Amino acid sequence: LIFNLPTSVTPPKGDGASLILLQLRLASNNFFRYFQCQYRYIVDTRAVLSSPQHLLKMLHSTYLNSPSGLALLNRHRPSLSSVAAIRLQSSMKGSGSSDQLVTTTRGCIGHISASAYGHGIQENVLEVEASRAPETTESFKILPGQAHPLGVSEVENGINFAIFSRHATTVTLCLLLPGSDWTKGKVEDGKMVELRLDPDINRTGDIWHICIKDLPRSGVVYGYRMDGPKDWQKGDRFDSSIVLIDPYAKFIEGRRFFGDTNHKLSKFLGTYDFDSPTFDWGDDKHPNIPEKDLIIYEMNVRAFTIDESSGLDPDIRGSYLGLIEKIPHLLELGVNAVELLPVFEFDEMEFQRFPNPRDHMINTWGYSTVNFFAPMSRYASCGGGPIKASQEFKRMVKALHNAGIEVILDVVYNHTNEGDDENPYTTSFRGIDNKVYYMVDFSNGGKFMNFSGCGNTLNCNHPVVMELVLDSLRYWVTEYHVDGFRFDLASVLCRGTDGSPLNAPPLVRAIAKDPVLSKCKIIAEPWDCGGLYLVGQFPNWDRWAEWNGMYRDDMRMFIKGDCGMKGAFATRVAGSADLYKVNQRKPYHSINFVIAHDGFTLYDLVSYNVKHNEANGEGGRDGSNDNHSWNCGFEGETTDANVISLRSQQMKNFHLALMISQGTPMMLMGDEYGHTRFGNNNSYGHDSVINNFQWKQLEAKKGDHFRFFSEVIKFRATHDIFKHENFLDKKDVTWHEDNWGNSESKFLAFTLHGEHGGDIYLAFNAHEYSVQVPIPSPPQNKQWFRVVDTSLKSPDDFVSEGVPGIKGTYSVAPYSSILFEAK
């Protein structure tokens, strides 16, 4: 046991027990100042109980070098001789030293009250189960600490811990020291040291804090126990039995390997690292690609390379390093920005915590955030853990930047992993201060508001939560050099603390005006699951871009041949001025997409009329029913050559329309070879071929499908005519149409006018028959060259230098599109 030498001893009530309680009372401040001592001794319980004088003798021989110390202890010799179990109480009165020696015995439970450093009464309790005490110990001193910064920081006096909780009445810092076995991702409470914070000393406002001297600079796993009111109807959810993650933890330790079913109930806690050298960014800079020039590739880090067909070493498949190895593919495709599905720490095994219809699934998309600062640790190579994950994430960003590719993160600030009251998964915010971090309906028994569809809704416009979000975003920009963010269900960010919509939401405005974040790409998914649909109306301060859901729907309906969609199709390819021509907004504030991670893949869009989500375990109730898809004559896989050919043609039509539209195009990983999820339009829970990139299929499609997709992307990149800074006017486009009101018409042709006569003629035919179309005269001293005809087989479907001789009329085949360039 290790303790401070007492100046008085109070015998405990009751007789001996295997648990020795040492409570250290210091009666003299002056004595405390000049006489601090440590005593390391593994006490034999039976010897102490039978002969307290034995312990006294050891104290005499070891520490009583001071005459005053000897006198103080001798004064209380009778008390020692009468105890059956020792209870040494200490208190310190008056102002004096701010240090308190705290010692822990590794392998034993320690409950230490860290209190009254500068004034008042201090009562420190160290409980140690003597029969379990090993021969090695750790010792350190504690200080009051400081309130900022939140999280863990290294200060001059040691390691500082600070956490917010307005409504907690008891806060206990829990430490798991280096050497604990985390290979199983379990917290063994028997090895955890617990420091209870005194609200009079360790609390400043709503921030609880403590500083610890001599604590290791890395390898410590930590969390908090919180206790407080238990009134659920008022939104309280305190549970001191749970060790909670610090919301400001920069690394999360837990399960080391993705989808490891042997440790599916793994505990997650924070850790820190002040030992590793600063990452060498070299001359890394943000590519700063103008928004009008972006071509975004939405992708999943793990799914991109986890399949064996990637050909990568198994140790790096599905990792940040694996993505680095496949950067050449991104360059060959021609994209210049990746939008990564969530890479904040999440628990992929959350569906398997208890029996339920989804307990066979693994959360591979990651829309279930555990912590907003820590990179997903199981995307590290070789099960390397959180510190390695952080380093390798930085290597990935640096490599992408070196290739001229920006990194945009899909971020989830609308809800967390903690679920609802029916199926709670308390890991952090819920147990720290539930009614601050979440929207709570106090008029409905303190239940969670659920605008996310996932059981809870983050209280984003509460000042404390807002600052958390801003701190997190800035951290990813400054620490990890990311270039932008796409905000999942961003309409949640536009709700007040009571859930009502706000015209000028503080968080959205703060992001737009922030000196760091305003320079980033900031993209909203402008809807939520509570019906707040804000496409074209998202509060933006002329900075926010939006996923244009109306673009997706109108493009799908026109190209598959729905009636009455020609006008809407023209509006979308021209930049959606009906939505975005407001104030200083630009065409590139429309993120144009036909396909995204949720919904059908491009192949499935032309292969299935209805969703096939049986594998999800929800009886087909999940996923959207409004897919605007067409299977081209047969549902699912087929060997019919005509159906296969038509599907290929339709995929090319969609891709061409996307890449010639004004605005910012985004495509989905795998569409460049025609990836299928077999009709599943909500595949978030499948760590399998359903989601995983199939590299052998890519190789098989390199000569036709992939070639077309890549060439069209590069054609866009080299032609500014598709990337107008401002919305089109009459001088920029000629619509070859005089019958806009004809709902039966499914054909549209138009000419984009470029500088120096570099015009582009385009026609899209969604009829089931050919259309013989008159071709307008080319600009003076120019002639038309056919670059694209999706009805032709590869390589004639795309000819980069163009095929000359286009005059008079041209037959546009059924369900096809063409592009001519004037040269």
- What is the helix content? 10-25%
Going by CATH, the homologous superfamily of one domain would be Glycosidases
Q: Please give the alpha-carbon distance between the first and last residues.
A: 88 Å
Structural category is alpha/beta
Note the overall shape: elongated
CATH architecture of one domain: Alpha-Beta Barrel
Class of one domain, according to the CATH hierarchy? Alpha Beta
- Largest sheet entry: 8 strands, parallel, barrel
Q: How many helical stretches? A: 19
Question: Any idea of the CATH topology of one domain?
Answer: TIM Barrel
* Rg, alpha carbons: 33 Å
* Unreliable spans: 1-137
The strands making up the biggest β-sheet line up spatially as 15-16-17-20-21-22-23-24
Would you tell me the overall average pLDDT?
Answer: 86
**Range of strand content:** 15-25%
Query: What is the strand tally?
Result: 32
Keywords: Chloroplast, Hydrolase, Plastid, Transit peptide
InterPro entries: GH, GH13_cat_dom, GlgX_Isoamylase_N_E_set, Glyco_hydro_13_N, Glyco_hydro_b, Ig-like_fold, Ig_E-set, ISOA1-3-like_C
GO cellular component, one term: chloroplast
Catalytic activity: Hydrolysis of (1->6)-alpha-D-glucosidic branch linkages in glycogen, amylopectin and their beta-limit dextrins
